[in-house]
Amino acid sequence: MDYKKIAIIGAGAVGCYILWGLSQKNDIELSVIASGARKERFERDGFYINDQLFTPVIKTPREAHGADLVIVSVKYNALQSAVLDIKEIIDEHTVVMSLMNGVDSEEVIGSAIGEEHIVPALIKVASERKTNRVFFDPESTVGIVYGEKGGEKTERTKALERLFEGTGLHYRESDVILAEIWNKFRLNVGNNQPQAMLGVGVGAYGDSEHVAAIRKGLVDELDAIAKAKGIDLAAADPVSIRGSKVFKKARYSTLQDLDAKRHTEVDMFSGAIIRMGKELGIPTPYNEFTYHMIKALEEKNDGLFDYE
Q: Cβ distance 213 to 207 under 8 Å?
């Protein structure tokens, strides 16, 4: 098998990394999924990726029906809408790969279309998005990690390797993909959120014992939940424990969202930790505080406290 018809749902920072790489392939049909005014805007404006203009084919979900591979890279608050698009795109042979943050998007998608369609995966790309412009360093980007839950190499994963080969994308197959996904989740919970509350660059983690202590409190709660769920975080490749190399001034996605007055993915980060903690009887005070603080910052951006 080979993936010849590829549809990308979500054209933000992650989607643009995939678009940048797969645009190098001449033997595939690559499209970005959008409808209505968004489709018109994408067709009119295109996407600037590292200052290069990309003008991919834009298809509605109906037009993309029968795609071989659907790559999902939307924000968490757009997941339910994306699920509706996925259901319209897929047929019995379609494979779906979610490159979203968190640890539950594949479960949400799989419950709607069947887990047999899913190849678990994650992505690490340190990028910055401003309107339709995305910037990232291709060389320092960790890239895509994928694999079957059971760890076996299959025709589906071999086809992914052939698809990504020669594209400039960084990728690898893992035989412990769940541990890899949870390690990325750990990085997001610990690294994304404290700097977002403070509005500072990632250098704060090394320069302040107090910021480092907040991060430790958040990830200690996650580690307790992972242990209770039987997730062996140590099984992942050592590179998965680290993020992409960035400058001290770097601002990760949660802070980028707040800077742009967008709502964040805190429901997927601390929100998920709180939910799992309640299910397992594990206290999560650091994550509860963080969740409410970031939600309050969203409300501030929305103008809720503009009392004058």
A: no
Higher pLDDT, 249 or 245: 249
| Contact (CB, 8 A) for 83 and 106 | no
The burial of 96, by beta-carbon neighbours within 10 Å (0-12 exposed, 13-18 middle, 19 or more buried), is given as buried
Structure tokens at 190: 């610990």
User: What is d(CA 238, CA 241) in angstroms, rounded to the nearest whole number?
Assistant: 6
27-36, 105-114, 148-157, 239-248 — which is least confidently predicted? 239-248
Distance between CA atoms of residues 112 and 114, nearest Å = 6
pLDDT at 244 over 70: no
Say if residue 243's pLDDT is above 60.
no
Pick the CATH number of 178-301 from 1.10.10.10, 3.40.50.300, 3.40.190.10, 1.10.1040.10: 1.10.1040.10
Q: Which residue has the tokens 């590179």?
A: 239
Domain locations in the chain?
5-175, 178-301
What is the predicted pLDDT for the residue at 1?
A: 87
Matching CATH number, 5-175, of 3.30.1490.20, 3.40.1360.10, 3.40.50.720, 3.30.70.2740 = 3.40.50.720
The Cα–Cα gap between 71 and 278 comes to 31
Separation CA 132–CA 13 (nearest Å): 9
**Rg of the chain in Å (alpha carbons):** 19
pLDDT of residue 242: 59
- Give the mean pLDDT of the chain: 93
